[in-house]
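Hi Y.,

Following your request, here is the sequence exactly as I used it, all 444 residues.
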Amino acid sequence: MSNQRRHRILMVSDFYYPNFGGVENHIYYLSQCLLTLGHKVVVMTHAYGNRSGVRHVTGGLKVYYVPWVPFIMQNTFPTLYGTLPIIRTILVREKISLVHGHQAFSTLCNEALMHARTMGYKVVFTDHSLYGFADVGSIHMNKVLQFTLADVSQAICVSHTSKENTVLRSGLPPEKVFVIPNAVDTAMFKPAAERLSSDEIIIVVISRLVYRKGADLLVEVIPGVCRLFPNVRFIIGGDGPKRVRLEEMREKHSLQDRVDMLGAVPHAKVQSVLISGHIFLNSSLTEAFCIAILEAASCGLLTVSTRVGGVPEVLPDDMIVLAEPDPDDMVQAIAKAIQILPQIDPQNMHLRMKKLYSWHDVAKRTEIVYDRALKCSDQNLLERLSRYLTCGSWAGKLFCLVMIIDYLLWHLLQLWKFNQPDAHIEEVPDITYGQQEERPSNFD
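Below is the corresponding structure, written out as tokens. Let me know if you'd prefer a different format.
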């Protein structure tokens, strides 16, 4: 079977299970579909609590939980060169041919792509978020992205808006950036067997309760909707620092019986929460794509969302009502959604979503990007350094110095008597899970 492997891919990100989110789901579903296409896929992330070492999940997907602990927002502490030895070992042991990093602010992703290019591997980067250009955090993050993408083989964005944002932030040539959207597991997200009664309209919110996801907007929208529509009730799933504000709002307006706060909802139970409602409300202030909208539509819910980022690209106009990120406009959008709700057929919406979005389609399109990346010509260190020099008068020189040191450290590891040259690192055999073999349980 090893000779039949088309590509050997290492997925790298700080964001993976047991943490749940759009990036985590994207990596998992994409990896599973690539495995079915005959590729070998290995995931590398940091340790989560006691989850450390090597694990196997569904379909034979191998996950390296390297012994780095999260520093802030699930990201590991930046070391620049500290991850080089373990990344080198994984690349050689697993006979990797291509490294695929996910998420711009993932420390592990940025460092892995840097080391992989130093070692001569082709790399692909997927950006899942949008960033601004004015605040201090975005300015620094954009410079890091410019450094990371200066030498990537190909890049992927999840929406056309995200592509424009990434090209502007990184200076990457647009012809090297491909748009491949997210998808949804329609086998998991199905509508309720029976249509819900319209006597009481239930609006579902499932989101991290943080500023970026528009939790402050919800605080103003919910009381306005409840005043206009006595038969509307809200179900809010999710947790975060803004949960206190929502609870204070509920107390202030005496909405305890009309706003249910579920707290954090495990991903396995998201579908059961969604099918209990009629409308899905997304109040994000910035969003490159938003998988949650796909999950809601696949469950037959009409979506009301802020018109931000790549959200207008996600669903057809008859499946979503868009509004500006303004409380009054959001209330009007919800009123419009309630009026057209009788026209919505959840089962028909689910069938349409099956045709529109498929992880297998995402995997096949990603496969084309891999093929293009592997056909890119090899470049020596001097040719690669010329790319970094274009990143700025002082930043370019600094980036060149960082890469030269990385190159020297890589060769030092080859010679160091306490380490092993590449030829002496034991390569692991490929494991094929046949139909009669017992497969590992999901996420264990």
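The mean pLDDT is 89.

Thanks again,
Q.
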